[in-house]
Amino acid sequence: MSTALEITDLSVSYDGVRAVRRVSLAAQSGEMVCLIGSNGAGKTSTMGAIMGVVPSTTLSIKLFGEEIGHLKPHQRVQQGLSLVPEGRGILTRMTVLENLQIGSYPARSTPVQVQADIERMFTTFPRLKERAHQLAGTMSGGEQQMLALARALMCHPRVLLLDEPSMGLSPIMVDTIFRVVEQVHKSGVTVLLVEQNAALALDIADRGYVMSSGTITLFGDANALAADQRVKEAYLGE
Ligand SMILES: Nc1ncnc2c1ncn2[C@@H]1O[C@H](COP(=O)(O)OP(=O)(O)OP(=O)(O)O)[C@@H](O)[C@H]1O
Ligand SMILES: [Mg+2]
């Protein structure tokens, strides 16, 4: 098994205050790995730093063995990394279709390929097809999350970073989103999933990391973490 993503000593500071301290983590090719932790632990900062949208001091970020830590975010996308950011980050004053078209820019797809990708997304998310010409900001939270996921998938990621896809969604919508995430994962995409819903994350992930106050405090097999007394007490409400 090859290593899809390998982060070594990632640190993030805001105005001199350290939010993430020397975090190292890895995902094997085809793995679904989750990162859990309480509010303010540094999960979003870590994801942003991996994507290159949050400045960090990082020893190394390797994507399938290639160093990408010096690349700009769009170049990382071209190398096969995509992020569905926390809060979705869609363009609310643009239509669904425009969001998908813009989403494909970093991948430098040809117009024919973009059209095929849009059709593929409309098959995966029929709801988005129905709403192709609707302004994204007028859609429900669940529909916006579908769009955020579809937009990231337009770039054919080999490694998909998901930051709190379940946030603010109804249980049915969480089901819909996670069914697609599992489908994407089964198609061979490596997934790094940040979730506030630790039970859900540990249920679908192969392995997990627990983050607390900017550092990784525990990691291992997802089932083992779900059975760990410390995880149960702190994150599973038991
Ligand atoms: N742009 C910023 N400027 C200043 N401080 C920030 C900024 N973004 C995050 N922080 C701080 O960094 C720390 C980690 O935040 P981060 O958003 O990475 O945590 P998180 O684990 O994603 O939390 P949550 O579960 O609430 O999403 C927090 O103390 C936060 O206040
Ligand atoms: Mg966050």
UniProtKB/TrEMBL annotation:
Keywords: Amino-acid transport, ATP-binding, Cell membrane, Membrane, Nucleotide-binding, Transport. It comes from the Bacteria. The keyword Membrane applies. The keyword ATP-binding applies. GO terms for biological process: L-amino acid transport. One of its GO terms (molecular function) is ATP binding. Pfam families: ABC_tran (PF00005). InterPro entries: AAA+_ATPase (IPR003593), ABC_transporter-like_ATP-bd (IPR003439), ABC_transporter-like_CS (IPR017871), BCAA_Transport_ATP-bd_LivF (IPR052156), P-loop_NTPase (IPR027417). Residues 5-238 form the ABC transporter domain. Belongs to the ABC transporter superfamily. This is ABC transporter ATP-binding protein.
